[in-house]
Structure formats: structure tokens, C-alpha cells
Amino acid sequence: MKTAKKLKKVSAFQAAGDKMTRTSFDKTALLYNFIEKRIWDDYTSACKIIEGYLTLESEEKIIDIGGGTGLIAKLLRSKKQNDDIMVFDLSCSMLQKVKDPSLSLTQGDATAFPLKDETFTLAILINTLHHIPQTKQQVALQEVFRILKKQGRIFIIELWYPKSFLTNLFVKTEKIMVGKTHHLTPDKMHLLVQDAGFHGIKVFSPKNYHYRYVTTAVK
Ligand SMILES: C[S@@+](CC[C@H](N)C(=O)[O-])C[C@H]1O[C@@H](n2cnc3c(N)ncnc32)[C@H](O)[C@@H]1O
User: Fold this and answer.
1) How far is CA 95 from the centre of its chain?
2) Which residues line ligand 1 (CB under 6 A)?
3) For residue 13, how many other CB atoms are within 10 A of its CB?
4) 122: which DSSP letter?
5) How far apart are CA 124 and CA 110, in angstroms?
6) Over the stretch 48-95, which tens digit does the pLDDT of each residue have?
7) 2-218, which class in CATH?
8) What pTM was estimated for this model as a whole?
9) d(CA 7, CA 71)
10) 109 to each of 32, 82, 101, 150, 152, how far by Cα in Å?
11) 183-203: pLDDT as tens digits
């Protein structure tokens, strides 16, 4: 009984956290592209890492999970004119900022995709996982596994940095803007991706981007 009560409390806390993430990104949407392009170097770095490390096959069906305002999808579209690219995000306001009509948009939660099994050949998550509560990151990766076709690939970019005054400041600023974040160590990421069922897992720091790491794996 006591445990059931505790669980109820935990899930109520998580639901509040999810709502907070959504509401925060709804509010940030207006300024998101400006902040990403001019203030943080997240977008520029992600573009360069994608250019350097993501190989696109022919006839991909791509889902950009936590794709936000579609900045990354836009980059992918510039490379692949005919492929299906879906921008998937929790926040409607972020999705409303996607201007390219050739991108399909779906609102939902990555921990329970409203999407069929084995639909996509490539799933990308750029700076998304750390916005998902730790207790749900594993479920999110299992869900990504479910919606990927056999031999489908996952490509993740995440932030990881040593503790210092500046990085603490960054985490605190991010917390004020979009709620608490849940950064994974590269080792923990490897474990979660493996437990979700993926193989051929590689976790590495791209050259010149020491505070970021890439994870790639195959279903
Ligand atoms: C830092 S932004 C990254 C946006 C985009 N990937 C980019 O690099 O420009 C994180 C995004 O993840 C989304 N997000 C957070 N939790 C999510 C969830 N559970 N399911 C889907 N999207 C989520 C947020 O709404 C937000 O748009």
C-alpha cells in the first residue's frame, strides 16, 4: 500500500516534469532558433557533426525525435530532396515553427510514440534525450527500437562535460529556461542503447567537439 502510494507520487512528479518540459519548450519556441544559432553553439556544432559522421543511405525514412523547430530536419532535407522526413516533438509551439512543408510533423511523447512498428530507417535524436527524465530514457530508446525497421539506425548527439564553474552555469541556465535536464554519461548511454536491443554500438567524442558525444547503433 505504502509502495503504491509512493509510486503514485513518483508518477505524479514525473507527469508534472513532462508537462514542465512541454510548457517550457512551448514558451522558448519563439526565441529558440535565435538562441540556438546566435547564443549557444548547439546548432552549428550539431550541423558539423552530422556533416562529418552521419551517412545517409538512399531512400531513407527519417524521424527526427525531439526535432523541435526543424533546424536539423532542414539540414537533412538540403541533402535528401526526396526522402520522407518526420519532425517529432512534444511541443506544439516548437513544431509550429517548422516552415518547410515537405517535412511531416507529429506531436507526441518519445516514450510512447503514436507510430507503427518498423516504420523508419533512421532515427536521430539531437540534444533530446537529456530532456527526458532518467526513469524514462530507457523506455524512449526501446520505443525508438520498436519504430525502426530491421537494420534501421539510430544517431544520437548528446552533451557531456566535466564539472566546472562554466558548465554548472550552463546547466543552471538551461534549467531556468527549459526545466531540469538529465545528462547521461557516455557509458550509461552505451548501456541503455544496448539494453534497448541495438547492436554495433559506437559511442565517441567527435574531433574538436569534446563536450559532445555521438552514439550510433543498428537494430
Ligand atoms: C534542445 S531541443 C533540441 C531540438 C532539436 N533536436 C535541435 O537540435 O534543434 C529538445 C527538444 O526535445 C523535445 N522533447 C523533450 N522531451 C520530449 C519527449 N519526451 N518527446 C518528444 N520530444 C521531446 C523538446 O520539446 C525540444 O523541442
Assistant:
1) 14
2) 21, 25, 36, 43, 46, 66-68, 71-72, 89-91, 94, 109-111, 126-128, 131-132
3) 11
4) E
5) 12
6) 999 999 999 989 999 999 999 999 999 999 988 888 999 999 999 999
7) alpha beta
8) 0.88
9) 38
10) 20, 26, 22, 22, 20
11) 899 999 999 999 999 999 999
